[in-house]
Structure formats: C-alpha cells, structure tokens
Amino acid sequence: MHLFNKKYIINLIIYLEKAIFLKDGVNASMKKNKKTELPQESSDSVNSDTNKKKSNLVPNLCIIAIAGALLFLLYYHFIQPYFSDKTIDKYREMYYSTTEAETDVQTKPEDVQQTDENIEDDTETATEAVTKEVKVSKNFSALVEYNPDIRGWVTISGTNIDYPVVQATEEKTDYYLTHNVDGEVDKNGTVFIDYRTPITENSKAIFVNGHNMKSTGLMFHELVRYKNLDFYCENPVFTFDTLYGDSEWKVISLIKTNNDERQGERFNFYRSSFDSDEDFMEFVYQLKVRSIFECPVDINEDDTLLMLSTCTYEMNDMRFVVVARKVRDGESADVDTAKAFERDAVLYPDGWYVKYPKAVRPVVTSFKDAYAAGEIDWYSGSLYR
User: What is the Cα 13 distance to its own chain's centre?
Assistant: First the structure.
C-alpha cells in the first residue's frame, strides 16, 4: 500500500533548509553590519532593534508554514491512511476468521436495502424482500453486528482490493464517500452499493462505487489496473460475496464513460432493474460496445451483472467501470483469455473523439439488429431465435 510519497519529504526538507539558511544569513549579515557601524544615538538603536525583529519575521513565518504543511502531508498521506487500513483490517479479521455455521437473522427493512423505484409492482420489491427471514452467510454474521449497512465483500486478486461493501441510503446517498465503515470521517470513504440497487437473492444488476485514491492507493485505486490487457488476462474473474452467499464473477466489459454532460450524453450504467429480457440484453449490448477489450465470456438474459465504478482521468469527471456477470451454477470459472484482445472501435462519449481525434467511433445499432446481422458471438440465450 502506498502510504507516503518520499518526494514530498525531500521537497519539504529542501524548503526548510532554504528557510533556515535565509534566517541564518540575515542574522549573520546583521551581526557583520553591527560590527562595522559607528556608534549611534539611542533612537537609532531602538530603530535597529525594530528592524531586526521585522527581518526575522519572514523566515520565521516560512518555517512555521513549512512545518504546518509537513504535518498536514504526514496526516493526509500517512496517519489517516494507516488508521483507515487498521479499521478495514478489523473487518478482514472478522470476515476471514468466521467459522460458525450460517445464522438465521431477522433484519429490519432499512437494514437490508432500499426500495428500487423502478421495480415493477408485480415483482418482489426490496421492501417486501426484507420483511422475510433471511439467511446471513456465515462470514457476515459478525460484520452486520458492527455495521448493519454491510451488504457484501469484494476481493480482486493482483490488487489490494479486499474490502467490506456497505450500502448507502436515500437520505444519505453520499455518506460513504466521506466516511469509513465505522462511520468515522475519512477522506478514503468506503466501497459502497448505490442506494437504488436492491440486494436480494434475485438481484439483476448491482452497482458499486469506490474512490480512486491516488494519494493513498486505497479503495478502488487499483481497479484501474484493468485498463491493462495483461492484467485482465491474469485476473478475468474476481469474487463478490453478499449476505446471501459467495459468488465468483467473470469480467465481460471494461468501459470509460463520462459523468460530465458537457462531454456528451451520459450513458446510464446505474441501472438495476429492467422491463424485459430484451431490455436487459440491450443494456448488455451497450456495455459491450463500450468495452476497451474483447472479453471472451458469453452472456444471456438469465445472467446477473455486477458493476464496479471509480474515477478515471483521461477527461474531466470520467468513470472507469468493470462489468462482470455471476458465474452460473455448475459453470466453470475458467476464461479462455487467449481470445481476449484490445478493440479498435470503442464507443466513448462525444468529447473523447474531440480530444482523441484518431479514435475510431463504431457503428452502433441495437442488440436485436446486431445479433440478426451476425455481429454478436457472445450471446448464449434464446431471444430472436
């Protein structure tokens, strides 16, 4: 974990040395002048003392300012990240050391998830789901006692991503952007599920946010390693466990999209419910045409999606999203990554093609038309057959 940047210390030491040198130089100069000056009247002596105090003020203020900056950077880059990681370690110890059997737990509606306003009336709503007795996976039985907002755990090999996942509420949608899993103010925040996402055994799509903490390396900073094709090929599968059980997930798409409407129309990748199987597959198609790599994983209308999102900086306020589908019951978790490659034509926001004029904009139609035209080889369902 990146705790502190040595460059900051080196620069501050240089500045501090300069400030001290400046102060010493001023003092030495004053002493020299004092020896060569002729005796003056008492009023001149008073003026000399006043000037001496004023001349010392600037270097003293510089030293105080530099010391304050040093303390701030020590706290920002070292002390707070240290305590942030210690807090997470407490939950890691509980999560990985739990060995007791599954525990039946009756939870309050607001403790499981928020109602998704887009869920149809004839389906099981989030509120209806939580009034039932649910089986909390053994790994979570201790965690939810500390924080009932905990909904899952995400782990990605090859990174330091190994975190509890909480869920925000509609009343505090941004709470976990600035608070850790213990509810303490923390610039690193916490990895959290969007409040609009219902977490049930039958969730169709789950959306998870996390800061890209370049200064500390925490939260979803290392998620952007998926921008590298070799890294994807080495880590095409990761784990995301929920209260309902453990699951592996195969990466199907890696997208860069805008959150700033000045760069073009925003792609709504926050979706968690769909009107029909056709609507779901159209959403998957839109995810696939935006993928920077071809991920050789088949998808169909019965699958469940997981989206991990963090900031990326190719343009202002962009998002990098790792999209995966759950490994099906009885399915191998293996992925033939030898078939993966970097795609030439990727759908980006309009502003991308302005900033990167050599980028190739693909022809995008619809899932139905693209499938009929034989342009899709990743679909394994039964629609339009």
Answer: 33
Burial class (CB in 10 A: 0-12, 13-18, 19+), 265: exposed
Q: What are phi and psi of 256, to 5 degrees?
A: -115, 120
19-34 residue pLDDT tens = 544 444 545 454 555 4
Tell which CATH classification among 3.90.1150.10, 3.60.15.10, 2.40.260.10, 2.30.40.10 matches the domain 147-372: 2.40.260.10
Question: What is the spatial distance between Cα 318 and Cα 259, in angstroms, rounded to a whole number?
Answer: 6
Positive/negative CA dihedral, 175, 178, 184, 185? negative
Other beta carbons within 10 Å of 99? 7
DSSP-assigned beta bridge partners for residue 305: 205, 325
Identity of the amino acid at 23 = K
* pLDDT tens readout for residues 81-96: 666 778 899 999 999 8
Give residue 72's identity as a one-letter amino acid code: F
- DSSP label of 41: -
| pLDDT at residue 128 tops 80 | no
